[in-house]
């Protein structure tokens, strides 16, 4: 097995997970000045980079194949300007919506609408309880999402 030097270097880096809601459900970069201050402090402490969730419910919320990266682009640029590396975590499930959660980012409404007519797109446990926070693997290869499969939308 061959291991690239980049992989070894990357594994040794120190990353900090940014807080949920740094980009709001309305696709707004909430506090660029405050985050810049935090990022510079992290850099000063020796942190190599940050990780951030990139939420499907924000990026494609307006409709199928209607992608809006504006807030994330601003965030990514700020991270770069602060001299930090970035790990983007592509999150295709719901954020929050549970007791005590302060951030709530559902999966895109157009997907939830599909689930209204076909609730089997959502994970269902043995007792029949459906969870609308994410899609079931049973639709991975079915073009139910405006001609795309769950794998293709994710």
Offer a few descriptive terms.
154 residues, alpha/beta, Nucleotidyltransferase, domain 5, two-stranded antiparallel sheet, 5 strands
What's the short story on this structure?
The chain has helices spanning 5-11, 32-44, 56-59, 70-81, 109-117, 150-153; strands spanning 15-17, 49-55, 85-91, 122-124, 130-135.
Order of helices and strands: HEHEHHEHEEH
Coarse shape: elongated
First and last CA, distance: 29 Å
| Rg computed from alpha carbons, rounded to a whole number of angstroms | 18 Å
Q: What's the domain count?
A: 2
Uncertain spans: none
For the report, how would you describe the main beta sheet? 3 strands, parallel
Determine the CATH topology of the largest domain. Answer: Nucleotidyltransferase, domain 5
Taking all residues together, what is the mean pLDDT?
90
Number of strands: 5
Query: What's the helix count?
Result: 6
